[in-house]
Protein: Putative aldouronate transport system permease protein
Organism: Paenibacillus catalpae
Amino acid sequence: MKESSAKARYNSLPDKIFDISNIVFMLLIVTVTLYPFLNMFALSFNDANDSIRGGIYAWPRMWTWDNYSYIFNEASIYHATLISALRTIIGTITSVFCTAMLAYTISRQEYVLRKFVTVIAIFTMYFSGGLIPGYLLIKELHMINSFWVYIIPGIIGVFNMIVIRSFIEGLPDGIMESAKIDGAGDFTTFMRIVLPLTVPALATVALFVAVYQWNSWFDVFLYNSSHLNLSTLQYELMKILQTSNTAASSTNAGDQFAAGQSGVTAVTPTSIRATMTIIASLPIIMVYPFLQKYFVKGMTVGGVKG
């Protein structure tokens, strides 16, 4: 009787209306979320001259590789991609590890300066020295034209530290006490107990840092623009876009120009911008599915405990 009554309530008209409305709403959210990326995908693979006519939405009308050929014909792209990959890998590992160490330190009740350090750290989230003092500081530290200017200045993220600290504070105190009873020091406890148990929070922070490192180009412009060997993919793509805008504005057509001396391949700033978006976002899209379950769990704990 109970099962039949529950089934009857589930099959009632209000329940069906709610389910249908929920499905329609979620489909609308998925469409709104995916359409911009699909539109960029279509424009990147569509003939640039044909794209000027408009009407390109989620699928190319005239398939071509010309837009990608135009970008990858730049010799600097490959070395810049290597630099971007290195700064993303090294920057993510060092930032997550150092941020986790700070988070573990200020999560300990026995650390008398934990509140003071937390307040100072949070203060930096709202106030900064500004662009010029920051540049002068980097110059005094002799990190101009250096690869480490990508790593050291952002090695600690305050928001990331709060997320990890909140996760650590949610761990059972008995685990830490048992480690101390067995003679483990703070660093041993951190490495062998805390880090393995905070994988969801660490994966969440790693995703944040990796996206920032991969997409960053302004620090290259400020500190390493004169050092081509330290240029990143995003900075090179930005320069290609500026070149395409300049070339397009100098042509009679106004919105298209020929790439290469043969004049066969035609691209536009719009097609180049779409191609750049796909190239820049593809690595993150490939990594995100592997971190999604940790990302959701880490953000949930951080939001509840923070």
Summary: The first strand starts at residue 257 and ends at 259.
